[in-house]
Amino acid sequence: MNQELKSHLLGSTRISLGGVALLDRKAVSLFFGGTKPLHAATVYRHIRAGLIPPPIHVGGCSRWSLAECEAALARMGRHNV
Question: Which pLDDT score is estimated for 27?
Answer without folding.
Answer: 92
